[in-house]
């Protein structure tokens, strides 16, 4: 995958406002300098542009914007065993691109933490998208992204997403923790 860009271009063709214009930016903690704060803002914008591209099914744009680290981990909103960087072959990335279609995305920043070599973003993704062949619907996810600076730029090292934006009760959480499901689908 291509090296990540510290200052992604505005997404002229997405029809979406820029990430900074549409995201409510929460506090940024611990940037030692204005440059560090600007890098956090750049990664917020990069995250919005790349994830918006993925929601449209444009995996090529996603790959051009984001470089996964060799030790990348994904904890997907569907649960299960976390996936890792070496699993993200060109074929798997193409399949990911066909999994999402015709989506629009907005990000609601919850918190951003930055240091010289690491940035953590916590936000709510508000997407309206076709997923896995289902009709378009709202998909709100709580997301945490971790970026690490490497010699060739910033790399995404971790993504965690879950669909618990509205919250669930203790009994439902306990059932999920035990592996219970409301449907017969098994992964």
**Number of contiguous helices:** 5
Measured between the Cα atoms of the first and last residue, the distance is 28 Å
Main sheet record: 7 strands, mixed
Please indicate the count of domains: 1
Overall shape: globular
Percent range for helical residues?
25-40%
Keywords:
Nuclear Transport Factor 2, Chain: A; globular; 35% strand; 7 strands; single chain; alpha/beta; seven-stranded mixed beta sheet; 5 helices
Task: Briefly say what this structure is.
This protein has 187 residues and is of the alpha/beta class.
What does the model show?
- There is one protein chain.
- The protein has one domain (19-177): Nuclear Transport Factor 2, Chain: A (Roll), CATH 3.10.450.
- A hairpin with a 7-residue loop joins β2 and β3.
- The chain is α/β, with parallel strands linked by helices and 187 residues long.
- It has helices at 19-22, 34-55, 59-65, 90-99, 170-177; strands at residues 28-29, 68-75, 83-84, 100-114, 118-131, 137-150, 153-162.
- α2 (34-55) runs antiparallel to α3.
């Amino acid at each position: 995958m291509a090296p990540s860009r510290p200052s992604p271009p505005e997404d002229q063709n997405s029809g979406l406002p820029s990430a900074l214009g549409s995201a409510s930016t929460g506090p940024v903690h611990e940037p030692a300098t204005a440059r560090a704060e600007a890098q956090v803002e750049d990664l917020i914008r990069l995250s919005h542009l790349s994830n918006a591209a993925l929601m449209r099914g444009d995996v090529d744009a996603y790959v051009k914007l984001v470089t996964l680290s060799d030790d990348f981990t994904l904890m997907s909103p569907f649960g299960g065993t976390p996936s890792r960087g070496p699993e993200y072959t060109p074929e798997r990335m193409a399949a990911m691109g066909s999994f999402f279609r015709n989506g629009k995305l907005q990000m609601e920043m919850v918190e951003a933490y930055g240091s010289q070599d690491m940035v953590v973003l916590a936000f709510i993704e508000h997407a309206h998208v076709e997923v896995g062949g289902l009709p378009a619907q709202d998909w709100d996810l709580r997301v945490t992204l971790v970026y690490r600076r490497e010699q060739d730029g910033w790399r995404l090292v971790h993504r965690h997403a879950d669909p618990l934006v509205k919250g669930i009760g203790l009994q439902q959480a306990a059932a999920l923790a035990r592996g219970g499901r409301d449907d017969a689908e098994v992964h």
